[in-house]
Amino acid sequence: MSDAIVELRGVTRSYGSPPTVALNGVDLMVEEGEILAIVGPSGSGKTTLLNIVGSLDQATSGTTRIAGHDVTRMDDADLSALRAHTIGFVFQQFHLSDGVTALDDVATGLLYTGTPRRERRRRAASALERVGLGDRLHHHPHQLSGGERQRVAIARAVIGDPRLLLADEPTGSLDTRSGDAVMQVLGELADAGTTVVVITHDLALAARMPRRVRLRDGEVVADERGVAA
Questions:
Q1: For 101-150, what is each residue's pLDDT tens digit?
Q2: Which residues pair with 9 in a beta bridge?
Q3: Are 167 and 139 in contact (CB under 8 A)?
């Protein structure tokens, strides 16, 4: 039995007519607990791959299995449940709500799980402590630095203890110091057992990751292991 939490075989995604091919025969296996970078220039297919792995989009052809589930056989309700309980998302833009404290923003990560409000807030506090923001629970977005806002977004993504965390350009809007702090948090999450996939065009950031999958023109052109020199 495979320990892969992500398994793509021959995945193709095309749009329109005549078709524009965004992914072309992609094979990708990600084991439980890995941390890796998906790297490539704009137009390489990174965002399309993220959407398929995150079950936000479906492949035109090929096999996609996430946490053992063949997503092509799942209906919308099942896909929503998969995202709610298995996958966390972190984006370049923080998507925090003005006028809402960090605690309550993170608690929204459990809003559709049926968890009572008091428990949501308790778990939100725990998630914020996990990313080093235990002293920022009642701060609003304008009171936080960019790096702190991104860590709030990470806390919101992991409040439900997802097995798989997808981070799309998580340091793209940050200075070097803040970006390093965010990557440290992601590394700690991986050390604790969360599978972390970082989507980036930043070659220097990718070089620090233990595995780098390189995309170009919708195809995997390299799958490298070991921190680059």
A1: 999 999 998 887 778 999 999 999 999 999 999 999 999 999 999 999 99
A2: 63
A3: no
β-pairing verdict for 164-168 and 195-200: parallel
Q: End-to-end CA distance of the chain: give it in Å, rounded.
A: 34
- The span from the CA of 38 to the CA of 198, in Å, is 6
Domains in the chain: boundaries: 33-55+81-225
Whether residue 31 contacts residue 196, with contact meaning beta carbons closer than 8 Å, is answered with no
pTM of the model: 0.90
CB atoms within 10 A of CB 90: 26
pLDDT single digits (tens) 50-91: 999 999 999 999 999 999 999 989 999 999 889 888 999 998
Looking at domain 33-55+81-225, which of 3.30.300.20, 3.30.470.30, 3.40.50.300, 3.20.20.80 is its CATH number? Answer: 3.40.50.300
Alpha helices, H only, 57-175: 76-86, 102-107, 117-130, 146-158
Q: Given the DSSP bridges, would you call strands 61-66 and 4-15 parallel, antiparallel or unpaired?
A: antiparallel
